[in-house]
Amino acid sequence: MAKHPKSGPNVPGFSSETLSVKTDLAEKPKSIHSLRIGGVNIDLCPGRDTIWIIARREGKGGVVLRTNPWPGPYVLKVKETSDARIVLDVTASAGTWTLEIAVLDDKVLRVRVSLTPVTDLLLAFWPRDLYVIDAEDDPTKAVGKVEAAQRGVNGGLCYFSVKDPGFGSVLYAQNLTALNPYFKATKTKPDGVVGGHWPSLGYQPPTSPMGYAPPEYPLAAGEEIVVSDALLAFRPDCAPDEIQSARYFVEMLVEIYPHLDKPEVEFHDWIDRSRRTIKDLSESPQARIEHYGHTYLHPYTDAEYPDSMVQLSVLASLREWELTQGAVEPLSAELSAGLGRFFDKKLGTIRRYLPNVGDDKDADAVDSWYLFHPLMNLARLAKAGDANAEKLFRDSLDSTVRSAQHFDYVWPIQFNITDFSVITEERSPQGRGQTDAGGLYAYVMLLAFEITGEETYLDEAKAALKALEGNRFNLAYQTNLTAWGAVACLKLWLRDRQSGYLDQSFVFIASFLHNCELWDSDIEHAQYYTNFFGVTCLHDAPYMAAYECFETFAAFDEYLRLGYDDIPPAAKLLLCEYRRFAQDMTWYFYPDALPEEAVARDDIRNGYNDRALSFPLEDLYGDGQPAGQVGQEIYGAGGAFIFAARAFNECGDKPFRLFCDYPTEVTLTDDGGLCVKLQGPVGQAGRLRLLRKARRTLPKMKVTLAHTEIEAIARDSDKDYHDYEVPADVLLIIHSA
Fold this sequence. Notes:
Number of domains: 4
Largest sheet: 8 strands, antiparallel
Mean pLDDT: 95
Strand content: 15-25%
Low-confidence stretches: none
Number of helices: 15
């Protein structure tokens, strides 16, 4: 009697495709070419109906990639070969498949597949392209774990480890940007297409606009189109814990990152955007409402009740803008004057709503993070010298600590602020609450320590971070909270430089990166904006949100500035890249930056969208849906102030402002020039722009690397600006030419 493979403890069964792989590899197909990455041997082996790419460690199993799916009988032609690359043509009944297999930078395996159909071609089903194998090339026997896979239309990533027979860790990425022509031709979207079930993993191209329905739109005859562009990085062992797992993920992503197709980062005038935002916040009746003789902000355009998170987010960001601009705005005092009305003396805490909120709201219900977020911004105001904000912050601390201790630092989704009774325990179906709320709480407790000097708040921060251990890639609930958690870890580590908190910050960073759209979509309305490195707001959200995007920018800007010399290179590079792309991508949340047809008009969830107002839409979609279906965020208006304050330097009485992609420190030199320290990743380059101030003349300038005569590369110039390409991690000296 024939023996049948048995499924492992975490494998419910095997697909027919997996069994087909087992059968094909059992015939030991002969290698026609070999490549090598470190200890990984890579063989190209013709199978019955595909070319297999088999990556093995001797005696420790490996992974096998299917290149051209189900072509039937084929003719193979080798076009190019070298020690690090081979190009093949595989001609079958459907057309010619061109395969490029290459080792990039001695670190990454690329398998790029394109197809030139012989006729207008409908493709009904494609199997996944990656299978895990044991030492005998058997995909039914390998044991391991998938740590992270694509969520929605986020980056096309699958991160897994092969424990038995010990191949190690693998990060698989699809360069989805290269597949835009395929998605547009077939009218499909790459929603959850990278992942799978052990041992059948990797990429499964979408074939129909309606999921598993029959395909409707063919690939055109005679037109070559990329159907897969897979990139793989390897580690020789399986991470023993979540910290090492996060490090491997970040490090391998950095190896793959240079080979992802990226858009050019555009410059945007956030100074001008800030001024327009201040005008609209000050004058627009859709933004403002009066209660108790004070001015409050609507959360959305002419919609929703005043909210402490909204008021404080805009106010704290505006105050930061004022400090960097050397300006005082009447709006700032207006928004500050009524803050006390949010404070509940009986409970001893800031509430979400004012006391006169309508009966259609449960005034006692609070999302866990909503309890801490207003305190974070009160603390920012207090550290900027606002005595009233400091008093409100101090008076709210005891109640906040009691809530944390009541929940043992593991928060539900929503609870009653009066008695801590749980309203919503878990997010379905994961069975977890607000997993990263503890990171924001730890950050707030560290601000409390800095303001009060009381050690008990240090202990609270440590207790909250301790409770977060073990969440791995399930840590992220709301991505701005995840980012603040990373900053909290770094702040604690900087106190002694010996504890494990810097390592723990990698867990937050890895979980955050897992939620980023690491591709540039050209699908439907997404053609009008970039989504590259945009972060989806929630762990399961279908869209990027303006508020979360600018808050994570602020958090990681702080992380980079605080830890510049101590941040491991991989984390520094990716966070700097997020910071760089966020300044570009977030611009397109503003409705006046999009064509009218790209902005939702009907069935808006909150209020309505007004292109004349300089407030961001809440939602942009990587799959090209109309933007602003959720509404136009007034609480996201602080983003313009943060980008202007963090990315632009006023430079004293100079006739220009200085903009840079990377965090910068600017000081005056003894001879009247400027010394600019760039705090970016080694080996990268970015933009430095000298932007003319109003009613000033921009002189000719000379930008040189400090202690040398080497001049920065001039990119572009006119009467309003001078652009330079500069190394990301140098000292620059700027003088009049």
